[in-house]
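As described in the Methods, two query proteins were run sequentially through the folding procedure within a single session, without resetting any intermediate state between them. The first query and its resulting structure tokens are shown here.
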Amino acid sequence: MSNNCRLFLGVLIGVVLIGIVPVHAGSPKDIQNQGKEMVKDAEEMVAHGGMGDAKAIVHHCAEVAKHAEAILKALPSADEHGKEAAPHLQDAVKYCKRVAEMGDKVDPGASLNPATKARAAAREAMKHLAAMKDSGA
């Protein structure tokens, strides 16, 4: 693994572990807003990939992973829709880690495949997150 890739993975892990945008008290509205931002980044990631911009793919995928991790931490354990969204959020993180491992020096077409899978996972997770209702807590 190249030094640049190691550096990027270190930064990605640091962002995920330390720089997560907090979702306040796991409220469905806040989780849904975070999910919308995640999907927006996923869409931009694939759009840039179609234009051959590998750096943008890596950047937006790191943002998707950051949002997905924050949502996973904020999901209420008793919410069925949240439970259904969790595996898709985990998939988005997994595919974005693959993009990070590839780095921005590879052919953008190579990183576009896992990026597209991350977008599909983010979209599917958002379907479940959108169905969450506020329990009044």
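Immediately afterward, the second query was submitted; its sequence and tokens are:
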Amino acid sequence: MYQLRDSLWSKFKSTGSMNDHCEYRKCRNECTKETKMANAQYFNENLNHNISNPRNFWKIISNIQAPPSHSQPAALKVNNQTVQHPLDVANAFNNYFVGCATTLIAKLGNDTQSERPHAGQDPPTVQRPRNPEKFSFRPVPVSAITKLLRNQKMKYQSGPDQIPAMLLKISAPAIAKPVATLINESLATGYIPILWKTARVVPIHKSGDNTLVSNYRPISLLPVMSKILEKCVYTQLRDYYQYQNYLTPDQSGFRPNHSTTTALLNVCNDIQVGMEQGNLTGAIFLDFAKAFDTVDHGILLQKLKNSGIGDSTLTWFQSYVSDRSQFVSISDSTSLPLPVTCGVPQGSILGPLLFTIFINDLPNVCKASTVHMYADDTVIYTSKPNLPQLEAVLQEQFTGVEKWIANNKLFLNTDKTVTMLFGTAPKLHKLQTPHLGVGTKSNSTLTTVTSLKYLGMWLDPNLSFSPHIEKLSSKLYPKLGALYRNKSCLSPAVRKQIVQQMLMPAIEYGDVVYAAAPQTHLQKLTTM
């Protein structure tokens, strides 16, 4: 039929006859119809076949919306020069990824020693366990190792050792006992093999110019065996801290029965209570620079010791954070390995828990305000009847936080750390200058904003959630349009699946928080 269409077009071009043109158009329309039907059949068959496999399902949907893009570039701009050889590109990436943290640490050299803890000195606000019982490792049974090996996900990429998760999974019955011996030997001796502390890093393009290293995110791939070891340690360490009730209730990150939604509920509820009491609420939203990547290992080990980790067990954690390295893979080329001397390991199992321990005592310096954290996303807030009282308390609290940050060798991005003033519309309208004057140790003043995206939700001074609903609507309408334009390729069942998995999660995220918004705002979502 397609050859007939082309021949009819050639015939019309040579004769110019309208009858020939009508014949061509009729055949062309039939071809278009057949193409749409073939596309619809292809996508429907594939989508229906993978409707219970979210990974493959969304891969097909992505191909409908846009062709796949390659995340690794053929060239990079480095120091105003273009590098193209894969090895040079890989080295450029690795130098940048490792250098981000070391550059920040180098800036500390200009700070006064009085603001830094001396070697061996405990950081301030040391928190100790309620029960003096020391933590030590228990031997891991073979049955637990067998379960961990069998639960490996096939999709996991292999680390530097090139041992795939699939191999460990299918050979679990045969290797569980020797693996258990290796892991228990590591826990007993406090030693971790060097290879298990080496990461293979894959750069993933975020957005913007794909020739700039700053527009890439490093994805660290560790050996699967190291993750088996870490899971064993994580389970024991988590259980210990839960038994000790050691973790602050002001942390919602990386904890069971906690989420960004629980963090949003806590913060927004406190602000709403302040409004109902006729108060103003002032909040400082902290922006840490590379918080996970700049954790000081000495301070981390001291905090682990203070939390009840015994000396012999602490030796294992010292081995865990020391002698780590990473290299970048581009095509078939790998960069030179570089040492990683700070931070919790990216892509690790223990990293998030260790960071939680590191930042656990931050709320202790804010006695006159409330602190809530989700990982490193931290907000400090308090409610007062008038602006002068509010500013005085927030200034005192922020000064204490700056000292804590300096003593713990973290880095605050004061350009992105902002304040926000909350209250009822009449209360805010009475203020001549509705902003908070909170100063930094460098004599600058934090910027006061009137809208802010916090944990995926846009906040406004009255908690009307109007900016959030507006931005959510603007995000969803184009997706609905794309779904409508491709409706001929999708069956009703597939369209329903897309709506349920692509659109509804965005609407349902935080809905318990913004459900109290005025109906005039919510109507934009209910009529969508």
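Residues 293 and 343 are 4 Å apart (CA to CA). We note this only descriptively and draw no conclusion about the first query from it.
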